[in-house]
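Hi R.,

Here's the chain you asked about this morning:
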Amino acid sequence: MSPPTGPATLTGLDPKGARAIHGTMVRIRVFETLVTELFVAGKLPGFVHTYLGQEAIAAAVCQNLRPDDYITSTHRGHGHTIAKGTGTDRLMAELFGKETGANRGRGGSMHVADFSLGMLGANGIVGGGFGIAAGAGLAARHRGSGQVAVCFFGDGGINKGPFHEALNFASVKSLPVVFVCENNQYAQFTAISRTSAVADLAIRATAYDIPGVTIDGNDAGAVHATASTALAAARNGEGPTLLDCVTYRHSGHYVGDAEVYRDDAEVEQWKAADPIARLESALTAAGWLDNADLEATWEAARVETAAAEEFATSSPDPHPATALDYVYTEDPEETPG
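And here is the predicted structure, written out as tokens:
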């Protein structure tokens, strides 16, 4: 696939909404850049899979969500978590395995969750979020709460069995779920042309009689507009939609990936289609942001992320005696008082 060109579109956006999306994208970019540096320096435990280059999708989709709506994520989940509203301090502390983390240091990078905001978890299992999102949508429909669920997944996950099961079930039951494929064109180390029989992944929606749309995932405005339509349909009882958001990750599958499976020229071509730069071009051309505004946004993100690192590194480790705590939900009948 060829990289897109030109500035992002602003259709359906007002200055406030567009600036909010931009701010979220910048916060994700700065956070993930620092996470990369910390991991390379040996300061972070485990593996990290960054969201660099895909920021437009999480930011623009989640801009359409209510705080009580649901999302499910992937092993590349930091961007989704930030876009849904989790503080970068709690997220960074979770990556450090600290007691002050979003999951008290138990989840780490690949399993962070924030149920208070409907973030039902990143997932180390490819395609692990499909059934969870469908279940969340089913529960919302039974409650009549008007909530929706968004299932973020990659182009590798679209070839897993749970994808087909979840889309079929969601269609049959008209569940309020929007399935968002973050098609960064590589399933770990394998190009999509070697794993998928169709080039346009959105046509798979046809088999389940639901809408399927392929869009430029590096165009925040296009993602916002398309997601807005799909989410409105879900809330109105019209069932699920499949969105194929074509994008590209700037770094490897994980930090430290040698990236021998793709050439430097391809990477540089796609970096030239950076979603943040394209949105900034559109915002400045529209007169919605000027250079001073842009610098202030980036500086605020840098200050926030530096504070998040300080919070994480100064936070206590979980006490070994609590290793088995929080594994199960406590039974109210067995809880004293």
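One quick note: The longest strand covers residues 177-183.

Cheers,
M.
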